[in-house]
Amino acid sequence: MTHAPVPFYMLCGSLGAGKTTLLMRLLEHWKQRGRRAGVLMNEAGEISIDGPRVGTIAEQVMNLAGGCVCCDTKEDLSWGIAQLVRDYGSDLIVLECSGLADPAEVIDGVTDLYTARLAQLEQVIALLHPIAGAQSPSSVFVTEQAIHCADELILNKLDLYVPGHWEQFKASVLARNPHARLWETTHGRVDVAALLQSEAGERHAAPTNVEFGGPRSTARALYHPIATTIRLAGPLNRTRFLSWIQTLPKEVERAKGFVRFVKEPELHEFQYAPPAEATVTPVMLLDEPEKAIVLIGRGYDVDRYGAELSACVETIGDSPR
């Protein structure tokens, strides 16, 4: 028996920004509404510290301890999602990333075409706070990636900073991601119903603690703003597909998928991760995946590239070329 993919929420951001505090608020919200929330906890150490506390509210908690979910335990992400959906009946999943995990790599993992059968990326929520003093290069990188990938940017610990410093911090975050909503909070106190509005495709007129960083559709799109899945109606014309790859703009930061070509018996895997060249290679798998291409990025014409890719599908009457 197959089920529709469950919503997948990701909490990411700076070390010590308050992700677990927000997670507890989210879980209370879902529990009050009868939702079965499954939680994936990713902590950098070998022992989970926050997992037992979260387990007092969540239906089921799975710990991905011992490394960053984007690298050391990336394979465990798919396994954890499968366990929560199939074995525990979770109807939504939330992942709290380690402050060392690259959110872009997590998005890459959860949009794998096998994993996407079980979970669909719903929201990327980044918690940030201004940090005085020097940071490690890895912390700076992860924070930058969290800002870039986020649908919701929550600037926490407002009470600890002088206005001038805070305003400068806020402006720098908005400049790096004009697409997300910006929230300013203390102790992670956010209007959870408003934060999760994309579930219903609606939003409140003016939440008191939210500032809109830029234009965003009020209706939930058929795709996530940063990860678009384009399903293929049939085998592709190889020449047209290879030409389409060459047109991908710099805003597409990652592309991947499985395709079949006309008059070729093999299944092919497509991988594109600039600045490396795109690859299209034959692959043998035990389970036939859905033929589709996933594009990851922001700021490009989704409809245009989707239509151009669909035009690569060979239809009856097309002549090989």
Folded structure, characterized:
With 321 residues, the chain is an alpha/beta fold. It contains 9 helices and 13 strands. The strands form 2 sheets. An 8-stranded mixed beta sheet has the order 3-2-4-1-5-6-7-8, sandwiched between helices. A 5-stranded antiparallel beta sheet has the order 9-13-10-11-12, with helices on one face. The longest helix is centred in the N-terminal third of the chain and has 14 residues, at 19-32. The two termini are 41 Å apart. Mean pLDDT is 81; it is low at 44-56, 66-72 and 199-221.
Nutshell version of this structure?
This protein has 321 residues and is of the alpha/beta class.
The total number of structural domains is: 2
Task: Estimate the strand proportion.
Answer: 15-25%
Q: Which structural category do the helix and sheet elements fall into?
A: alpha/beta
| Arrangement of strands in the largest sheet | 3-2-4-1-5-6-7-8
Task: Give unreliable regions as ranges.
Answer: 44-56, 66-72, 199-221
Distance between the termini: 41 Å
